[in-house]
Write a structure and sequence with these properties.
Layout: E1 6-9, E2 16-18, H1 21-27, H2 32-41, H3 45-52, H4 57-67, H5 72-80, E3 86-89, H6 91-101, E4 107-112, H7 119-125, E5 134-137, H8 138-141, H9 148-157, E6 165-169, H10 172-179, E7 184-187, H11 191-200
Parallel strand pairs: 1-4, 1-6, 4-5, 6-7
Antiparallel strand pairs: 2-3
Helix pairs in contact: 4-5
Pfam families: HAD_2
Protein name: HAD family phosphatase
């Protein structure tokens, strides 16, 4: 069993709820099929992930409008009303975070795929983000999970020993990315299973 000294959390999907549905379901008058088509074909997840790697939001918007001018109004909503897509805190996971933050035996960080332009809005909305000793935001670094380089950067910047670290993410690909540099990974499903897996690793909660 590893001697865990560092705990690294993903944010979106683990501690923070974020969903474009909060904006677009209203715009499509509750027609989920049309909304899903728009979010899969026009403002697709892969397109949004490009901004998580540092591509400018304004340029990304103009690129998309040029490709799909008939959807200009909706495309501009994506980042124009992005803050409305920020939902709630996952309170049950926050309890786990608070427990390890208060324990002097652990160093606690966050590693998130997030646009550097929108992340300050999250900092304003969720004061508990200040609990982390450090947060590495992909959009500020020009590289995102699951690329190996971002995990290596995390280890270097915060002087983390990968053999003494655990990384929690709701994306299995991102967990596996961390494992390529020797970080023990936990694929987040819910707070209850996370708690059990941390305890199994000897983490005191």
């Amino acid at each position: 069993m590893p001697n865990i000294k560092t705990i690294i959390f993903d944010l979106g999907g683990v501690l923070i709820d974020w969903n474009p549905e909060y904006v677009f379901l209203k715009e499509f008058r509750g027609n989920r099929e049309k909304m899903d088509w728009f979010l899969n074909e026009i403002c697709a997840w892969e397109w949004n992930m490009n901004q998580d790697a540092g591509y400018p939001l304004a340029q990304a918007t103009e690129d998309r409008v040029a490709m799909f001018p008939e959807y200009e109004k909706l495309i501009r909503m994506y980042y124009g009303r992005w803050e409305e897509m920020l939902g709630y805190t996952h309170e049950d996971t926050l309890e786990i975070l608070e427990s390890v933050v208060q324990n002097p035996n652990y160093n606690v960080f966050a590693l998130t795929n997030w646009s550097g332009e929108t992340f300050p809005k999250a900092l304003q909305k969720f004061p508990w983000l200040q609990w982390f000793e450090g947060i590495l935001v992909s959009g500020n670094e020009g590289i995102r999970k699951p690329h190996k380089e971002i995990y290596e950067l995390m280890l270097q910047r915060y002087s983390i020993n990968p053999n003494e670290a655990v990384f929690i993410d709701d994306s299995l690909k991102n967990v596996q990315g961390g494992e390529t540099v020797g970080i023990k990974g936990i694929h987040y499903i819910d707070a209850s299973s996370l708690k059990k897996e941390l305890i199994a690793l000897g983490v005191v909660l």
